[in-house]
TrEMBL record, chains A, B:
It holds the Pfam family STAS. This is Sulphate transporter. Its main location: membrane. GO terms for biological process: transmembrane transport. Residues 455-551 form the STAS domain. Coiled coil: none annotated. The chain crosses the membrane at residues 27-48, 101-123, 135-153, 173-198, 218-238, 267-295, 307-325, 345-365, 372-389, 401-429. InterPro entries: SLC26A/SulP_dom, SLC26A/SulP_fam, STAS_dom, STAS_dom_sf.
Amino acid sequence: MHINLRRFFPILDWGRTYDRKALSSDLIAAVIVTIMLIPQSLAYALLAGLPPEAGIYASIAPIILYAIFGTSRALAVGPVAVVSLLTASAIGQVAEQGTAGYAVAALTLAFLSGGFLVLMGVFRLGFLANFLSHPVIAGFITASGILIATSQLKHILGVSAHGHTLPEMLVSILAHLGEINWITMLIGVAASAFLFWVRKHLKPTLRNLGAGLLLADILTKAGPVAAVVATTLAVWAFGLDGKGVRIVGDVPQSLPPLTLPGLSPDLVGALLVPAILISVIGFVESVSVAQTLAAKRRQRIDPDQELIGLGAANLGAAFTGGYPVTGGFSRSVVNFDAGAETPAAGAFTAVGLAIAAMALTPLVYYLPNATLAATIIVAVLSLVDLSILRKTWGYARADFVAVAVTILLTLGLGVEVGVASGVVISVFLHLYKTSRPHVAEVGLVPDTQHFRNIHRHAVNTVATLVTLRVDESLYFVNARFLEDLIQNRVTQGCAVTDVVLMCSAVNDVDFSALESLGAINLRLKDMGVRLHLSEVKGPVMDRLKRSHFLDDMGGQVFLSQYDAWVQLSGKSTVTAPR
Amino acid sequence: MHINLRRFFPILDWGRTYDRKALSSDLIAAVIVTIMLIPQSLAYALLAGLPPEAGIYASIAPIILYAIFGTSRALAVGPVAVVSLLTASAIGQVAEQGTAGYAVAALTLAFLSGGFLVLMGVFRLGFLANFLSHPVIAGFITASGILIATSQLKHILGVSAHGHTLPEMLVSILAHLGEINWITMLIGVAASAFLFWVRKHLKPTLRNLGAGLLLADILTKAGPVAAVVATTLAVWAFGLDGKGVRIVGDVPQSLPPLTLPGLSPDLVGALLVPAILISVIGFVESVSVAQTLAAKRRQRIDPDQELIGLGAANLGAAFTGGYPVTGGFSRSVVNFDAGAETPAAGAFTAVGLAIAAMALTPLVYYLPNATLAATIIVAVLSLVDLSILRKTWGYARADFVAVAVTILLTLGLGVEVGVASGVVISVFLHLYKTSRPHVAEVGLVPDTQHFRNIHRHAVNTVATLVTLRVDESLYFVNARFLEDLIQNRVTQGCAVTDVVLMCSAVNDVDFSALESLGAINLRLKDMGVRLHLSEVKGPVMDRLKRSHFLDDMGGQVFLSQYDAWVQLSGKSTVTAPR
């Protein structure tokens, strides 16, 4: 019982050894992360199309719940760019941005996503996330980064534009170019340029000036805060909001409110698939961050328990005015680098954000949306990495196709179609590759007991004996290929009396392949040819023994290919019985 | 050019050596097959919900076109039970049975199916059929047999009933039980009993009476003809059609008419998916029959050319008043057993059927539908083979699940949902199996250079060295599994300094797995552990060399696992440099 509780509440694990040293490390990390999270949370809420406070609320309860249920000691949970984009795309289809229905749909999305994650965790279905291949994720993240950056252009230009795909957005922005607000654009471009400079050049500059590594790092991460402060002051001082610059405006001063997600069947039906997608993508991103950080301290995380932790965080977001959350890369790395030792650091961050929500929100009244858009653009452009196209092209064409299709369809048809197509095409390409396995006809290397490809090496062969080495597990997708291949090979050589399948690389033979082997055996019998197997692996042999195939087989099963050669060719230094 | 023509027109191949002996064999086979096909064609048209002549028309042009383009020498093309059921299910959704629109939809279905098959053949996409695993096909055929037999009960009982799923059909029959026509039922039950007896007992009885094997075979196959003649005479003699027995009635006396498939976008849109399904299922059934028969004479067929042959046959059906066709099992076996040597036998059968269509159709005026239903029921019950459930249960649970799901969903939700779910579930189960590959931790068998599982054998190990043998290709679905596994193993053993992945059964490493290996390598480095590879296959090594992974790897690539052991453990009879 005790052990069970610790499995489901990892807090019982690290909580009992919590000491003063860990406390001070966690407190320092929490202060740093809180400062970074305030502008980031406001910005991601803007990206999701929600009021700014939603971003802060989404960072409070979820962080605490993850601290209780999650297994990573450094992961920081909250709104992230890609999930915010997915949220905007999903709820944009059921409600108009700015309406009460829109915010309720965001809660529903978080609720469904949380429920799905918890279910996956309880039933230990974390492996389902593996269906997203690395190329598909990389292509999807890159395309999402481009989509997100483009979606923020309207805030930089001060125009109103719409659309969930790249062509829609570009057309919409071009149509509204006449409405550009030049002061907004000045603020947006200046903030973007400043943030790019901070990201690229501030850290080396500070280091040259003699700053410590940690200080330089913190100041660099605080760049967005500086941009927020400077542009807010500028708007306030010059009354720019009266000149058409859109500002954040009133943000309620309160702790996260208690909210209820909408659960009407229509709404749930419309958001179920997007919720699953958000869960899986959020989980994949979160686990890879958590695993990377855990390895640095020789710790481990439990992916199935992570599902429960992230699920609890999303359920928390659903009941406290937030929207879907996951473990974010940048905030987690900051948390880790700032020295967070336990999930308590997250809890302290939550306290910091709660104080900000109650006390500091009036300070962002004059904050221009263009500044938030600039922080988003600079942050997401680091996600855009088109080198994945070059890398996969050089390594494996199938992976290249998966990346290219995912990027093109995500940009052209939207995030949901893009990622779904990516999954389907990677599965298909994998099956296609294994549908035509590498099969080598082999012969005996002279003076050895080794067998090699007859087309690549000088080997001994016998006209009556064909030996084929299959370099793939046999299953339904390639079973018929083997039937064709053997039938073709044997109809070519009239002298053939024995066919040996060398199975050293066959890790599995499914029922379809078993039936194909049976068909091959019968057809060979009809041609007066015997079928033999050699070097069959233990688990495969156990399974074959449970069928009738071995009884019906014309030939034998040889432990080694050399045994088969000696007995069937009659040629060896040892005189074998024929 | 010459060779190309022979590839696309196999008739040029066998046509040039056609002689008097082949002619007489083919003529005899044609007469036998024609006699068998007349009742069968009428019955399958009834099953498809089409007028009886459609079944005969669908056997004439398609046979001739297949003779020109097909590669099998014995395959007999025409209406078959499962495809007739699929046709009824597909066009029942777009038109009312008995209307002109229904017959036109059947032509459209044949046209789309033919077009799709030709395209698959031209682009050599025959491998797509492999996505239907044997268990899915077996489950689908069995469930279809049950559905077909049930669908014919209404003709046996003389009631009108509807439905495309088993529950629908049973409920509908029960609701109409009050309308039973007892004379129809008498005919139907008697015909069924007679046909069952013929199928089970006539051949042994005849053989006991001294009949030759071929004669006994032919008389057995002619059973349906006898049932047709006897019941037709009974209806005519006693005027049973006036007592409510439904009869075939007027069948036009004509050669196949020239028809045009309907090509309105709505119709094409509604029938496209069913047409693809019919094509693939028809192709799979046809190829397996053709391949089995070809092997008996040490011949071969070309699956991609078969697609073109079957496609041409379906296009022929679309323009001559037919409906979708494929290579049938029973008719092909009869054709083969009767001695058909070339596709010319098929052409002669077509001539026989054309004569029947012109001259003999008045003779079937009084033929009761109940007799046709009886021939269908007896024929399809031989397709029902529930032993596939037992066989797959004993051999592999994943295959059992695929069969069970396919059968249940085909019966419960219809043929299209059933087979589509079967395909999806087999792909999913295959990926699931490979998502948790067998990984053995291995050690050195004393006094050898062999490595075996440490949990199964008494082997030597070293605390600083972990060697893992992965028995599966590494790709996106199992890449993360390996990451977790290695991280867990290394965090357990604090003394570990070296991890060797033994890759003798790894046939491929895709881009996702490459990135996972990269991540594993970095995380191990963070823990102060080196990653090594051993026994990497040539093609995998070639690919790894095209990436940066080998440059970044903490350890080395060893040609053999024994080399790795000697160098990393320092323990061997040979003193190795450390």
